[in-house]
């Protein structure tokens, strides 16, 4: 089975205008590089071909970027035929979040955090999502930064439930769907990737990745997450509009 070597920057200190001028300092760059050396590159699949992608880290270094900043450069070995269908190093981008609002929930209350990628989604959309959720659940969140350009259009939704089962999040997901639709692309844009993490009281968490463009498919997938998590206990679920559940 053939393999191929891919390389590139997964984070950098370059100040992208789309990131509001925010940059990572040298200490953070070196910390990210050390973490990748210990734990391997971050990987959030954005379509079916990237699920369970075998990756072997070959090298990690802190290098100067073409625009004069500092970046975390990696070289990885992946399966050649799989990578030809993917060909997108944004899979390995580092994600950082900042809060503009705190949920302020008690330990025995459910609450939700919503963070949306600053390169793709204006602050007004984040605040509109807060407005739709506030009547139903304590909500916080803010901006999400991916230090590659262009980034994937990602939205991180974290639901905290005072229960040992993900099924406890079921009453929340209809409201999450109504809020999440503000981040869907208009026209023929790239599908939005919703990364939904259910945090349980027993300190366990389960993740679902929903990739979609349409309201109906998004709502159907989001509302199905808790029951699917509770039924099979998987740590990762993946839904791609037009294809369905892949795991």
Tell me what you see in this structure:
The protein is 25% helix and 34% strand. The protein has 247 residues and is of the alpha/beta class. Strand 9 (205-212), helix 5 (215-232) and strand 10 (236-240) form a beta-alpha-beta unit. It has two domains: 3-93, no CATH class; 96-245, Macrophage Migration Inhibitory Factor (2-Layer Sandwich). The longest helix has 18 residues, at 215-232. The chain has helices spanning 26-39, 80-86, 123-133, 170-180, 215-232; strands spanning 3-12, 55-64, 70-79, 95-101, 111-117, 138-146, 154-160, 192-199, 205-212, 236-240, 244-245. It contains five helices and eleven strands, in the order βαββαββαββαββαββ.
| Helix fraction bin | 10-25%
Radius of gyration: 18 Å
Architecture (CATH level 2) name of the largest domain: 2-Layer Sandwich
Any low-confidence stretches, pLDDT <50, length ≥5? none
CATH topology of the largest domain: Macrophage Migration Inhibitory Factor
Give average pLDDT, whole number.
88
SS-based structural class? alpha/beta
**What is the number of beta strands?**
11
Strand order of the largest sheet: 4-6-5-7-8-9-10-11
Sheet with most strands: 8 strands, mixed
What letter string, H or E per element, gives the SSE order? EHEEHEEHEEHEEHEE
Q: What is the count of distinct domains?
A: 2
Strand content: 25-35%
Total of helices = 5
For the terminal residues, how far apart are their CA atoms?
Answer: 24 Å
Shape annotation:
globular
Brief overview:
By secondary structure, the chain is α/β, with parallel strands linked by helices. It is built from 5 helices and 11 strands; from the N terminus they run βαββαββαββαββαββ.
